[in-house]
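Consider the subject:
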Amino acid sequence: MKQNKSAGASRRSGGDSSAVARVLAEIAAGRFRTLYFFLNSDEVFVDEVVAQLKRQLLVPGLEVFDFEAINAAEIRGERLSVPVVLQRIRQAPVAARRRLVVLRHLEEMHGGLLDELLPGLLTVPDSTSVVATLTGERKLVERCREAGLDEFIIDEPAPTGEALKRLVVVWGQNAGLEIEPAAVDELIDIAGEDIMFLKNEIEKMVTALESGAKVTPAIVREYASANRVFEMNDFITAVVNRRRSEALRILRQLEETGESAVRIVVNLGYAFMAMLKVKMGQKPVWSIKPERREGLRYWNTERIDVVLKKLYEINLKIVSGYMEPFALIEMLTAAIAPVGSAGQRKEGSWR
């Protein structure tokens, strides 16, 4: 079947270019690929691409017919086999411009299942777009390239410099904002180069401003609070490093300054997912912020998994209209074990 070959030209980031920015620009222009294969890429990038594809491809109210999200760990045989997954990918769309299938964490597939799936990703029909993610060491990455997927791979490190500025502009355009170059510089000065915090600040302006608004440095200074950005970072660091009293104090400040409970949960999720990847050997230790590496001593994969599940439950309650969202986050934060001089767990805290 005919394949969209543009991924090969866009996937490599040379100089100050950004593969993800180009992908987002393509989607905004109505050009879609059959396969977006993210290798060792930040989850923030993946989430943004999926969100834009949903917005462009799916019909509101009918998403259930044309969208499917699959965690690759569930592909184990009888219940959900590789042939069944490929069959779902090849289904014709019901109402959407294209069917959208998201396959996350291919590195979790067991035995030869991954080798069975990879060739099938070469035969995605033109009526479907697949977003696949894999985080792994060199041998696992080479298996993907040897399967013929090289031209579809998006291997995007965290952008810096001009590439980051262009990505901010694209994020703004996709959200209906025109961010002036000077405003981009101002935003990065306030939020730093952490893409999670930059994305959060853009989302706050989207909520406050009308579609099509031009964002100037003055508007950035009005809506992007440097104190709140730093407080969010400090809160996550305190949670990861299991400094309970400090975390609770900062959480109250975030609530008083009007921070979104959902954004707090999402940022915590990203931080714990990053630690999980380090613990599983899928990411190097230096990929964790220096101030949070202390926390790696206190969290094993089982404890991290517990937190991620609790964050999922909290997020579900918040989006379902729970009246006291910060109370849920406070209870989670309070369950963090205070760490003494020997780093020992205290009674009633995380197991």
